[in-house]
UniProtKB/TrEMBL annotation:
Residues 8-249 form the ABC transporter domain. PROSITE patterns: ABC_TRANSPORTER_1, ABC_TRANSPORTER_2. It comes from Paractinoplanes toevensis. SMART domains: AAA (SM00382). GO terms for molecular function: ATP binding; ATP hydrolysis activity. The keyword Magnesium does not apply. The lineage of its organism: Bacteria, Bacillati, Actinomycetota, Actinomycetes, Micromonosporales. The keyword ATP-binding applies. It comes from the Bacteria. Keywords: ATP-binding, Nucleotide-binding, Transport. This is ABC transporter ATP-binding protein.
Length: 249
């Protein structure tokens, strides 16, 4: 599925917090059309790297390009306009708004912020059908009119995915899509992410190796802010340095 292009590339990307190198000279390459996992022990720098890629943090040094264009230091909304959008967090859901209302708002934000140019044909007409389609894709259609505050945990996470899908970004970044889920929700989410990955590039962080093994074409293992290993899941899983890093956790 991977195309010839590079969706995201970082060069010597570094983030220093008060002298501490949380991300240290990272050269990352995410191929267009791939599903790319970022893994590593706690404190490895995954969240920091994620925040750098989406513009939520500015790097101390190094560069980030998206489809060849420099986005280093751009704020999140401008990075998003280049085609990179991240999953919303449960903490940004409104308890009193229904799933349908959330998706409607996300679709409005989508056209207002000018994401439209990515795939304009999908947004022409039939907004109601588009909302229904998104809710159906994440399995929330039966709960469309329930306030988000009353949804179960796994349902809230599904709503987060519907909201990032509403943006329809070419590059989708998912921050621990299965965190805190029971096994059934985990498997449902794997299926969902697999479907929504069709035709786009996905970068995700997840601690669950079953999820990583099921979804990722490519895995980057971070340790102490640096890339420890990179490759296919089976390749990195059997890498001695990776085994040692996880044993040391
Ligand atoms: P991971 O997501 O892999 O667990 P993080 O990116 O959250 O790792 O953190 C990497 C390191 O950077 C940790 O040691 C953490 O304490 C430190 N760190 C992260 N954010 C900050 C911050 N805002 N200020 C100071 N240190 C931070």
């Amino acid at each position: 599925t991977a195309g010839g292009r590079v969706a995201i590339r970082t060069r010597a990307l570094t983030k220093v917090f008060r002298g501490f190198r949380a991300v240290d000279a990272v050269d990352l390459e995410v191929r267009e059309g791939s599903v790319h996992a970022l893994v590593g022990p706690n404190g490895a720098g995954k969240t920091t790297l994620f925040n750098l890629l989406t513009g939520f943090l500015a790097p101390t040094s190094g560069t980030i390009t998206v489809f060849g264009e420099d986005v280093t230091g751009l704020p999140p909304e401008r990075v998003a306009r280049r085609g990179v959008a991240r999953s919303f967090q449960i903490t940004s859901l409104f308890d009193t708004l229904t799933s349908r209302e959330h998706v409607e708002l996300a679709l409005q934000g989508h056209s207002r912020q000018g994401f439209r140019f990515w795939r304009s044909e999908k947004l022409l007409g039939r907004p109601r059908a588009r909302v229904d389609d998104l809710l159906t894709q994440v399995g929330l259609m039966p709960l469309a009119d329930k306030p988000a505050g009353l949804l179960a945990y796994g349902q809230k996470r599904a709503l987060e995915l519907a909201l990032v899908l509403a943006l329809d970004p070419p590059v989708m970044l998912l921050d621990e899509p299965t965190a805190g889920m029971g096994i059934e929700d985990v498997d449902r989410t794997i299926e969902l992410v697999r479907r929504l990955a069709a035709g786009r590039t996905v970068v995700f962080v997840d601690h669950n190796m079953h999820v990583v093994g099921s979804l990722a074409d490519r895995v980057t293992v971070l340790q102490q802010g640096r890339i420890l290993a990179e490759g296919g899941y089976d390749e990195v899983r059997n890498d001695d340095r990776v085994i040692t890093a996880y044993l040391g956790e």
